[in-house]
Amino acid sequence: MEKIEQNLTNSLEKETDNLQKYLQKYLNFNDIEMKRVKMIDLKNLPESYKKQLEGFNDKRLEEIRLAIVPDFWKTSESHADQQFIIFNQKYFEDETKADKIHWLTHELAHCQKFLDSPETYFKEIETPAFGNIPSENFYPNNKVEEYAFTQQFQTVKGAGITKEEMLNLLKEKYKDENDFLFFNRLLDKIYKQ
Fold first, then answer.
1. Phi-psi region of 38 (alpha: psi -120 to 50; beta: other; left: phi over 0)
2. Which residues lie closer than 8 Å to 29 by C-beta, 6 or more apart?
């Protein structure tokens, strides 16, 4: 039994080490900057985030790791193929917002879609969700983002946020009017339900 536990511990340490090396390269951080990055297992999420994970009712998502990064240039970002999510530390720890816009739900939806079928995930990331919306790089107008934003918007609606409030929250992050052609279509569908 001790040998099995030791092998599991060694395996987890190696996985964490590989993840940190990947993250260090991706973020272009030196060793000192990497020491400021916090790694969290989703099983150990703060209470304000647990409901988002529980809403998926998908045990596979409990294996996703969260990297809390100081000065990260985005609010959050999924690396579904690596099974981790990056969050900006200030945003993640801001109890006054408590992820009102539910970015964790969005990123978990990416991970879930990848776990369902990696092949389909990579195919759909280059498949437009709506063919008549101009897009240079398929973001956000692709099938994967359609799935992730749909999960996010349904959760936000369930939390009592109106369509107008959601659009205002999105305007803090998105500036391209073509993005709002995509968002309005999804929000129209969700808020008519």
1. beta
2. 23, 37
pLDDT tens-place string over residues 90-135: 989 886 677 888 999 999 999 999 999 999 999 999 999 998 887 7
Alpha-carbon distance of 134 to 61, in angstroms, equals 33
Signed CA dihedral, 155, 60, 18, 119: sign only: negative
Sheet architecture: strand order including 76-79: 38-41, 65-69, 84-88, 76-79
In angstroms, the CA 67 to CA 15 distance is 14
Q: Whose CA is closest to 75, among 109, 99, 42, 108?
A: 99
DSSP letters of the chain?
A: -HHHHHHHHHHHHHHHHHHHHHHHHHHT--HHHHTT-EEEEGGG--HHHHHHHHTT--GGGGG-EEEEETT-SSSEEEEGGGTEEEEEHHHHH-TTTTTTT-HHHHHHHHHHHHHH-HHHHHHHTTS-SSTTS--SS-SSSSHHHHHHHHHHHHHHHHTT--HHHHHHHHHTT---HHHHHHHHHHHHHHHH-
103-116 and 143-158 helices cross at what angle (nearest 10)?
140
Low-confidence ranges of the chain (pLDDT < 50): 4-12
